[in-house]
Write a structure and sequence with these properties.
This protein has a single domain, classed as Spore Coat Polysaccharide Biosynthesis Protein SpsA, Chain A. It is built from six helices and nine strands. The strands form two sheets. A seven-stranded mixed β-sheet has the order 5-4-1-6-8-7-9. Strands 2-3 form a two-stranded antiparallel ribbon. Helix 2 packs antiparallel against helix 4. The chain is globular and about 40 Å long.
Amino acid sequence: MKNNSPTVNGYILAGGKSSRMGEDKGLILFNGKPMITHMIEQLKPAVKKITIVSNNKAYEQFGLEVINDLIFDIGPAGGILTALSHTNADYNFICSCDMPFIKTEAINFLIQQSFDFEITVAVDQDKIQPLFAVYSKSCLSEWKNQIQKNNFKLQELINHFNLQKLEMKNMKSFDEIIFTNVNSKSELEQHQQKEK
């Protein structure tokens, strides 16, 4: 990050039920280490501070602050609410815990172009990635408002803000594998050896 850029914190959402995996996805071993470790390593150079949003105290083993969801059982919308309520940074890179192929370069690419918008989401082949995105702290009030209206779908929620959809294909050396979610044991086996 440039010295004159706004402060950016990172939040990893690890509060899902992992029903398809059968156990906590972020803690499952992926190429020899917990899946979330891959993400922490790539996120660390890009942000000032990393916080994990989870109700599972086992995540404290990584030496980062772990915070509980403010509202339970409403999916990632609740995790983002928790992150925006907690942060002291102007901008926040937010991702889910099951994307072990994310790269620092892609995170920086997104962050560097996010400061004129409330939300900047990565887009690849017309697919929007609201859990590979930068959210401004200023979103908090309207985000709360939408949740109070029972609007929990991220693809719908983000449209209530000054939104930038950033085409990741414009990034030098972009590889779409960074958006791969590992949701099940079969996907785990399938992707284990792909890591570069």
